[in-house]
Each structure stands twice: as structure tokens, then as C-alpha cells.
């Protein structure tokens, strides 16, 4: 309810604040923003249509999901231009569109397409971006996400994170048999592919900073072990299989190290594995549980969970284990921290009124904001641009993935037809 | 999984036989005790040292009977976010220490947590529970080399629900015998 009022207020404020003046590049300031009204016209298509989705649909869904845009319903469109020269600006000003996306695709040889799109400022009547591509049919979806990234960047001034991937674990049950799958999909949940399958639990997928590898925990030998696996050829390496638990792998942003947890010396402590020397170094020394390490940008500091105070709370320390300080004080359960790439926000799971929800902490002011109101949220993970948080929650007794904007305004869930879905991890930016 | 179940069942059976003072030969074709789910498997019925089905067996005052009852229990349960043994859990572990003292087998203590909270923290919590049980065994003279602790955190619930009745079943240590 409150949320609805807030959004309504946001819309009103936006309408009052932006009369006929074009404010297409929004600067992030404090206060409430409303989505930029945008019209994405279905691309003119010559050749075999895309099998799964149309490009304009993918782009429009991307933009809507970000919460920064409000797309104008297609049935309201008065015309359907595919090139800026065909645009009648009156048609779009009438619909209060601030931005317009037009495009076309032409199959130049079987399975090969020429695609072009233009992003247009409706009020100024001018092109903001225009690109041409030649791609194969199976690259059309990826290209759509790349176009979304360009539009997002042009209109918000921030880098888009649509052309990224998510890793997650699903558990499927057939009778008494369970199987666990580690999967990777596009950021919108499409194109899932299985990286690993096991009859025993899989846990804690973590991306390498170049998005070429995943670290994860597997119980395939009936106890937890850490592996790092390459995505292109499936080749994997066992990193930690010490006595006790081996868990919570996290690549350093420079890709040189892997922080992880093992209880080989008696109780769970945080260690760092160096990929070049294969040496491990212990960072924490405390009889409490120390776990869930996550690197801060720059690879010089880490945040982690420790119950050294009596309950799980979030701490930070230097990459050599020195300078430990506590970060969270509000509430009796704050865990699984991770920091946005710009270092400004920390996302974590916090308990309040018996619920485990996603909360963000401003790293400068230490102010904590609750983002979700669900019961059993887990595994929050920032988009590489820090604007959205992907997490796992439960709906009707089933594990689903959900996302919330870092300001808590936009909520969405990604439902899968099969199995329990858990432990999402948002990839870094892809290197094309 | 099946094999472990069978081995556990057989060992448990022999434990019961041992406690009630009868012959110590293990029976490979004996009934199994299903340690994997709350419901008893179709292959056997769990029973106490007096041969009565466990659910109905009231137990006698005799020491052998009481120990046998405890020994037949291979799960101990915990409070939320706690690895402290309850009085009942303590008694069950002590009974198993008694069995281990008389039999040269090894034991695996498998710690579990309920689904609430974060998975990695719960993995650590499950281990802490297994260690708490291991500490009791060691205090009662069982050599650490015979004890293995494993944690599955919240990954292997025995009750699938999302309420306290399921959670209380899942916060547990499973006691499994090897050889």
C-alpha cells in the first residue's frame, strides 16, 4: 500500500516537475524518481522471424524491469515507424513519450541479419543513438540486451546491466530422487543452460570477475568441497577439500584470489587461495563462526559474517586479515554481505519480526534500509551496475528468484517452471 | 544412499542386540531403519530391543531397556540458531558413546540446520551442532579418530514444510555408523 502511494507520489512529482521541457538524461539525486516514458516500436522485419521473442519485446521488458522506464502500451501507438525519417513527432508527444526506439532487421542471407536501431529524443526531435549490426539469428537476443544497455546508458547516464548473466542452483525432485543443477541464464532468465548436475547438493555459485568461470560448493563426495569451473569447456579444478566444511567461495575483483571458508583448523575461518602460487592464507582467527566473505572493490578489503558477538553480524577487514571492524549493529541477524562495485552500498540478509529480508546499508552513513518484505529471502547479489539486487525467496512453498531495485521501489520475481530455484549470483559485465 | 541406510540399520540392529545382551552377530537381511525420511521405509519396521515396534514400546525401568531406546534414536534436535544439546539430545549421545565404547566402529555425525537464515552460515551452524555431539563422545572416551563430522547446513531437510514443525525436525544431528 505504502509502496503504491510512493510510486503515485513519484509520478505526480515527475509530471509536475517536468512540463514540456525535455529531461532525458536523469541524474541520480536524492528523492523519488519516476520512470522515463518510452515507446519501443516493434522492429520492421524482413526475413524469418525470431523463434522465441521479438527484439522490441526483449528491449521493452529489459527497460521496464530496471524500474527507470515506463513503456507506453503498443495499442496506443498512432504509427509504427522503423526509421527516424518516418517519425511523426506529434504522434509521440501526444502519448507523452520522451524517448522513442525504432528499428529494423533484414535477413541478408539465411540466418544472418542486418539490424539497425535508433533512439530518438521526442521533444527535441533528434537522434540520441543509432547503430547498425550484422549478426546471426542466435545472437539476436544478446543483441537486444546490448541495445537495451545503450538505451539505458544514453537516457540515465549509467551503465546498463542487461547483457549479463545469472548463475543459480535448482533442485528438482522426481519421486525419492533429487537432483541439483547449477545453471547459467541471461539476466532476464532466458536461455538457461546447465553447467553441472549432481544427485548431491550444490551451493554458493560465484562468478570470476571476467565472467568466464564459476566457483561453487559441491557435496558430490558427501561433504562440501570447492571447485572452480570454466564455462566454455566445463573444465574444473578442485580448490578446497579440507577436513570439515569448505564453503562460500568469492573471487577477488582482480581475479587473482579466491576467498573461502574452511573449518580445517577446528572451526569456520576465512582463508584466501592464491591462483598463481596455489598457497592459502588464513585471514580470521576467532572461535566464532566466520563465513560468507565478499570482496570490496579494489581487492584490498573484505566484508564477512561472524557470530563473534553472539549472533551473526557483518564485519569488514583488510585483505591480510588485519583491521577487523564491525559494520552492523541494528537487529540480531545480519549476514551474507556483498558490496556494490562502486563501494557505496552493502546488501545483506537481515532478520526483523521473524522474517529474513534483503536490506541495504549505505557504507558511508551506515544507514540500513529494508528492501523486501518477504519471509525467507536469501543470497542477495548486486547487478554489476549496482542498481538492482537479485535474490532468492519463496512463493507458495517454492524457491523463486526475485529482484528489487537498490532503492526498494521496483520488485519483480522470475519464476521457473521446474524445481526449486535458489542462490542466484549476478555476473559481472561480459566482455562482449 | 541405500547402502548407508542398510549399514546404519544393520549396525543399529546389532547395537540393540548387544545392549539387550543377546548374540552379537549382525544379520545382513535384517529389517532396516530408514534414516532418510520421517516416514518409515517400506522395507522394514523400526523396533526396540524387546522386539516391540518402537512407536508402541513403552520401555521398562531396566537400564538395558532405557539405553536401547535411546540408542535406537539416531537423530538429536536443536533449538533455533543453537548448537547446545538438549537434555534429551545429551542422553541420546551418551547412549551412543556407551555403544561406541563396546564396539570398534566409527561414527559419522551429520549436522543440519533449518532453512531460515543464510545458507553458508547454516552450513557452519550444522557443523557446530555436529561438533557439539562429537565433544560429548570425546568427553566420554571415544577417540576423535573414530568420529567424523559432516555438515549439510540447510541443504538436506527431512521435512519439506516452511513452518516451525518442519524447521524443528530439520535442526538436527544424524548419527550414522560406519565400520
What does it look like?
The complex is a heterodimer of chains A (432) and B (179). Chain A has helices at residues 2-17, 55-66, 89-94, 140-156; strands at residues 36-40, 44-46, 69-71, 99-109, 112-121, 126-136, 165-174, 177-186, 193-198, 202-207, 213-218, 225-230, 236-240, 246-251, 257-262, 269-274, 280-282, 290-295, 301-306, 313-318, 325-326, 334-339, 345-352, 355-362, 368-370, 378-382, 388-395, 398-405, 411-414, 420-426. In chain A, the strands form 7 sheets. In chain A, strands 1, 2, 3, 4, 5 and 6 form a 6-stranded mixed β-sheet that branches. In chain A, strands 9-8-7-30 form a 4-stranded antiparallel β-sheet, with no helix packed on it. A 4-stranded antiparallel β-sheet of chain A has the order 10-11-12-13, with no helix packed on it. With 432 residues, chain A is mostly beta strands. In chain A, 12% of the residues lie in helices and 44% in strands. Chain A folds into 2 domains: 2-156, Rossmann fold, CATH 3.40.50.10070; 165-426, 6 Propeller (Neuraminidase). Mean pLDDT of chain A is 88; it is low at 1-32. In chain A, helix 2 (55-66) packs across helix 4. Chain B is an alpha+beta fold and 179 residues long. Chain B has 2 domains: 1-63, no CATH class; 73-179, 2-Layer Sandwich (60s Ribosomal Protein L30, Chain: A), CATH 3.30.1330.60. Chain B has 5 helices and 4 strands; from the N terminus they run H-H-E-H-E-H-E-H-E. Chain B has helices at residues 2-19, 63-71, 87-102, 119-139, 164-170, and strands at residues 75-77, 107-112, 147-153, 172-177. Residues 1-64 of chain B have low confidence and may be disordered. The A-B interface holds A 201, 203-204, 219, 222-224, 244-245, 247-248, 261, 263, 267-268, 289, 291-292, 305, 307, 311-312, 333, 335-336, 349, 351, 356, 375-376, 378-379, 394, 397, 422-423 and B 81, 115-121, 123-125, 127-128, 131, 149-153, 155-156, 161-162.
